[in-house]
């Protein structure tokens, strides 16, 4: 049974051991008071089985064509039936699994230890509404067989067996969120989203219910396709049994609420561009998905999964799917089986929830991608990179940490690092572009995590980025848009095969893999912050081999001039030998342990110490600061320790509900020593106790006293209406709670012209709490001020003020439509708010418009004010809101922006 609340699994062991009852007359202890029990058990910082893989991420259709016999998937010559057209970037181009098998020498030559395949199951070859094909693998109809365009199940088995014989693993890209677009609705194929508050789910007997209240449980009610959903699902004749396994053909196992806007409630329940969104709260879906992917592990020996669209699936699903699939893999002898999810977000307090709260092993490190691009390509302040790595503590808990995160520089959705470097440095020469590209790879290989190479990056591929424009073929292309792309570090073009092992980036990546293989601490050693310059310049860190007590110093320079820095180390008066880069062959540390390092422009150097870190004579004193709710995640407590001393230390934190058993909650090996303890499942006010123990490099330990805290009350935040908005007739209210629980009930209150607050309604439908206030019935005059707030328990939200009447709009000087479609408009690159071709025109009706011709494709866009990102609006008119999707059939499209509501649309 899946836990109804999003946080129960994480603390299951803690609560099972302790319960939540407190001993009679329990007396609170003061901060760091002597522990009434034995000292916490010292542990080493966790290294999960996968911390040193070199991934090669490849889209099979775009890599190598091993045989032309399967190009059309056995569906004939019509591209709109077979999906095969090598001249179009949105169709199958001909690559297959045999092509991958034939090119394993090339892949292995990069130092690859794991191949990660985009989804390779049978897809709906063409979705007419999208005017493109399923070459990418994300439109699955049959989860039990390989897509015929790519080969057969036997071809996959041959690829896996050969990779295993070479010591390489094979990872599958899998999907649990959706299937191909097969389900339509009675009114139309695709419809706008309908919220749960507007139209709730109903049982087969017509009784309204909130799915979050029964998610994953045996109490989940029976549903009826005709009456349970906002839209009645319809299957076209001949497609009633299209999907495999057969349970996927039951339309009541899908959300059936219309298309998502990728924000709020509908990001969990809405269809992606019409793709059938699975009802992952339903226990049959959970069990079915586990069965599907366990079969691939048992029958084919797959070594791990990358999981698509993880943040769009409810937490309870992951809390059952992750542990159960992992246990199954271990039972099959796959001791190093590894799963990581796609959580497309750059804030660690959010991305880390999937490895802590949701019991998954790892997530793709999108925050790293942003930090690496900013440092290597944009010349960002080196101290920003230092702060980025300090934030790794968000991932530290009892069974996972940042050392296992797959790191990457670009991908098939965003674009390539070569394209980013070229876009960020439009006036740079070839040498500088190549150096910045290499610097990004050096950062990725020498810092914590598992580096991922996106196929083609090793050949200098660029492109404007975004979806289809980041999916060039390594074999000779016939796609006109690809033939226009420049390649870094070579005179080659996309009109020819690009499997050149002499390409400078291929050789650099291979050498990075060799260095890290020879010196494993550069991959899984403790990551110690050492130095960060103000502005562009040097960021330096150490990697510590904890067994050999050997220190490596890595220094990267993102400025265009050589830079020198004094970098602290643990070893006074010792020699450090260069093992990578163009720095001095040897440097010697001063008596205080600092070494003076000069790093050439846009490059990296690595030094290895000649001896062991001096043994600590005694463990330092350790004190806990007062735990507080973490900024950014009110469901986690920030627990931090202060240490005396300056050697290599590891600090283990433990927690318990008062009077219960102590449970480890994480070990940190880098100052500041801290963890973010997940307590969201506990009732507000639950007494908590914390303690810590420090382990030095000689095995000495010292324990802290015990500090007390309480599980925090939830915080409720009012997100709508917009501040100072003008309103008529009705006001739509929306609030969110942190931490989110299915049991939350939020009240909304209104004040008229500063008068008393009165409750106007409640909502218990998580994860978004909404209400519409019918103000027409109040019969209030124009310019009346209304104030709104939300209340959850003792928590009172921020206040939003609106004004009855029609607004006086002060129009901006310019409005543009930046997005992944700008290059198709004629702009030099995508996401350019200053591009002339993306500027809109103000009409007499007060609306801004832009009409352009675009090729068929899936795009993302926003509205930007005055040719800058300083003020921009996305989904729902939100300031800085999410990107707005556009599924376009090709031809003319008109964008319309209303500065009164900040809503931008495309028709």
Automatic annotation (TrEMBL):
InterPro entries for this protein: A-amylase/branching_C (IPR006048), GH (IPR017853), GH13_cat_dom (IPR006047), Glyco_hydro_b (IPR013780), Ig-like_fold (IPR013783), X25_BaPul-like (IPR054409)
Residues of the signal peptide: 1-26
Domain Glycosyl hydrolase family 13 catalytic intervals: 57-516
Domain of life: Bacteria
CDD domains the record matches: AmyAc_bac_CMD_like_2, X25_BaPul_like
Membrane spanning stretches: none
Keywords: Signal
Residue ranges of the region described as Disordered: 24-45
Designated name of the protein: Glycosyl hydrolase family 13 catalytic domain-containing protein
């Amino acid at each position: 049974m899946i836990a109804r609340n999003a946080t129960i699994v994480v603390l299951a062991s803690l609560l099972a051991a302790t319960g939540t009852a407190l001993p009679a007359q329990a007396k609170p202890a003061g901060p760091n008071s002597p522990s009434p029990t034995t000292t916490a058990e010292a542990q080493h910082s966790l290294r999960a089985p996968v911390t040193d893989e070199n991934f090669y991420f490849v889209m099979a259709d775009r890599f190598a064509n091993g045989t032309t016999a399967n190009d059309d998937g056995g569906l004939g010559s019509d591209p709109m039936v077979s999906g095969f057209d090598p001249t179009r970037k949105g169709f199958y181009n001909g690559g297959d699994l045999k092509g991958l098998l034939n090119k394993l020498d090339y892949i292995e030559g990069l130092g690859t230890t794991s191949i990660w395949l985009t989804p390779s199951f049978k897809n709906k070859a063409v979705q007419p509404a999208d005017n493109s094909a399923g070459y990418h693998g994300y439109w699955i109809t049959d989860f039990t067989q390989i897509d015929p365009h790519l080969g057969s199940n036997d071809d996959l088995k041959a690829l896996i067996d050969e990779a295993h014989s070479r010591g390489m693993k094979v990872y599958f890209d899998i999907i649990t969120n959706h299937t191909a677009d097969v389900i339509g609705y009675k009114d139309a194929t695709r419809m706008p989203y309908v919220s749960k508050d507007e139209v709730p789910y109903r049982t087969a007997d017509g009784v309204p219910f909130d799915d979050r209240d029964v998610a994953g449980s045996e109490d989940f009610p029976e549903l009826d396709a005709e009456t349970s959903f906002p839209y009645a699902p319809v299957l076209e004749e001949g497609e009633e049994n299209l999907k495999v396994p057969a349970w996927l053909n039951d339309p009541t196992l899908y959300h059936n609420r219309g298309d998502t806007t990728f924000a709020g409630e509908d990001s969990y329940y809405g269809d992606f561009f019409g793709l059938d969104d699975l009802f992952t709260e339903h226990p049959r879906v959970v069990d079915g998905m586990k069965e599907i992917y366990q079969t691939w592990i048992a029958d084919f020996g797959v070594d791990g999964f990358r999981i698509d669209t993880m943040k769009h699936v409810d937490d309870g699903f992951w809390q059952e799917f992750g542990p159960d699939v992992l246990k199954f893999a271990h039972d099959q002898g796959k001791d190093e089986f590894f799963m990581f999810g796609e959580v497309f977000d750059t804030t660690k307090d959010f991305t880390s929830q999937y490895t802590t709260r949701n019991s998954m092993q790892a997530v793709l490190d999108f925050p790293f991608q942003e930090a690496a691009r900013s440092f290597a390509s944009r010349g960002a302040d080196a101290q920003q990179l230092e702060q980025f790595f300090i934030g790794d503590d968000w991932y530290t808990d009892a069974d996972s940490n940042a050392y296992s995160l797959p790191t990457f520089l670009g991908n098939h959705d965003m674009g390539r690092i070569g394209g980013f470097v070229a876009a960020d440095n439009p006036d740079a020469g070839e040498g500088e572009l190549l150096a910045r590209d290499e610097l990004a790879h050096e950062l990725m290989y020498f810092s914590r995590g598992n580096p991922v190479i996106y196929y083609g990056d090793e050949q200098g591929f660029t492109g404007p980025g975004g979806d289809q424009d980041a999916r060039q073929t390594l074999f000779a292309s016939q796609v006109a848009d690809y033939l226009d792309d420049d390649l870094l570090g070579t005179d080659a073009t996309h009109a020819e095969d690009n499997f050149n092992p002499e390409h400078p980036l291929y050789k650099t990546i291979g050498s990075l893999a060799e260095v890290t293989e020879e010196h494993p601490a550069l991959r899984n050693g403790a990551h110690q912050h050492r130095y960060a310059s103000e502005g562009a310049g040097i960021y330096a860190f150490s990697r510590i081999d904890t067994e050999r007590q050997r220190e490596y110093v890595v220094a990267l320079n993102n400025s265009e001039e050589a830079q020198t820095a004094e970098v602290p180390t643990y070893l006074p008066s010792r020699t450090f030998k260069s093992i990578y880069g163009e720095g001095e062959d040897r440097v010697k540390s001063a008596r205080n342990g600092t070494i003076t390092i000069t790093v050439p422009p846009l490059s990296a150097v690595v030094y290895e110490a000649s001896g062991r870190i001096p043994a600590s004579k005694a463990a330092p004193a350790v004190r806990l600061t007062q735990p507080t709710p973490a900024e950014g995640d009110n469901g986690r407590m920030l627990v931090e320790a202060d240490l005396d001393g300056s050697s290599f230390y590891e600090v283990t934190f433990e927690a318990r509900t008062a009077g219960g058993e102590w449970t480890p909650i994480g070990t940190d090996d880098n100052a500041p020593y801290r963890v973010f303890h997940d307590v969201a499942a506990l009732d507000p006010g639950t007494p908590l106790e914390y303690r810590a123990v420090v382990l030095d490099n000689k095995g000495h330990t010292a324990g802290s006293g015990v500090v007390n805290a309480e599980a925090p009350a939830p915080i409720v935040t009012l997100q709508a209406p917009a501040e100072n908005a003008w309103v008529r007739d009705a006001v739509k209210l929306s609030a969110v709670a942190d931490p989110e629980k299915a049991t939350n009930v939020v009240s909304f209150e209104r004040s008229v012209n500063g008068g008393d607050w009165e409750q106007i309604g409640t909502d218990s439908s998580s994860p978004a709490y909404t209400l519409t206030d019918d103000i027409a019935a109040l019969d209030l005059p124009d310019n009346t001020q209304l104030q709104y707030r939300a209340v959850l328990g003792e928590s009172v939200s921020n206040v939003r003020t609106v004004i009855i009447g029609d607004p006086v709009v002060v129009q901006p000087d310019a409005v543009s439509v930046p997005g992944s479609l700008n290059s198709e408009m004629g702009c030099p690159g995508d996401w350019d708010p200053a591009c002339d071709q993306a500027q809109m025109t103000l009409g007499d009706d007060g609306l801004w418009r832009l009409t352009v011709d675009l090729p068929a494709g899936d795009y993302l866009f926003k509205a930007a004010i005055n040719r800058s990102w300083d003020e921009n609006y996305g989904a729902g008119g939100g300031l800085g809101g999410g990107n707005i999707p556009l599924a376009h059939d090709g031809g003319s499209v008109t964008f319309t922006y209303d500065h009164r509501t900040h809503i931008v649309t495309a028709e």
